[in-house]
Design goal:
With 170 residues, the chain is of the alpha+beta class. The chain has three helices and nine strands, in the order βββββαββββαα. Helices cover 26% and strands 33% of the residues. Strands 1, 2, 3, 4, 5, 6, 7, 8 and 9 form a nine-stranded mixed β-sheet that branches. 29% of the residues are buried. The N terminus is likely disordered. Its cofactor is Mg(2+); Mn(2+). Belongs to the Nudix hydrolase family.
Length: 170
């Protein structure tokens, strides 16, 4: 059993802001059910986590801090909140959204992460549930519209890369 010794960062003194908007970074952790990455034969699965404040589900996300790159922040949030490690891929987009609790605007950056390892113990294990599900299930349970848009972009990206591979093969 592999364990990572890490505690979740807390507080906002290192948070990045842009024109008064808190910068938030998230990941859509994904894998292929049968593990070999053939999207045509295998089912794409994404990992959602429970919200700390409510019953809603979402993808891992949190503040982007001054001492890390945007990709490092995405990777850290996935480790802290979902207990997964992997390869952070090319950004899916940037969204502006209003915080439900504070009523202020945030700027959200979303990345896909191809999961290479799932940990048994992680910093927020006792605070969250994590569930692998199909894209359709994740769209249904995800509470944030901007995360659903990011998921659609990821699915389109994977489909188009598969079509390119098919066009190239003999």
């Amino acid at each position: 059993m592999k364990m990572v010794c890490l505690i979740s960062r807390s507080g906002r003194h290192l948070q990045r802001y842009n024109k008064g908007r808190r910068l938030v970074v998230g990941c859509i952790p994904y894998r292929y059910k049968n593990g070999n990455g053939d999207a045509i034969k295998d089912e794409l699965e994404v990992l959602v986590i429970s919200s700390q404040k409510g019953q809603g589900m979402m993808f891992p996300k949190g503040g982007w801090e001054l001492d890390e790159s945007v990709e490092e922040a995405a990777s850290r949030e996935s480790l802290e909140e979902a207990g997964v490690l992997g390869n952070v891929e090319c950004q899916l987009g940037i969204w502006s959204f209003k915080s439900k609790s504070l009523g202020i605007y945030h700027e959200g950056y979303m990345f896909p992460m191809l999961v290479t390892e799932q940990l048994d113990l992680w910093p927020e294990k006792n605070a969250r549930k994590r569930l692998w599900m199909t894209v359709a299930e994740a769209r249904e349970v995800c509470q944030h519209w901007w995360m659903k848009e990011a998921l659609d972009i990821l699915v389109d990206r994977i489909k188009s890369s598969r079509h390119e591979e098919e066009d190239v093969s003999p």
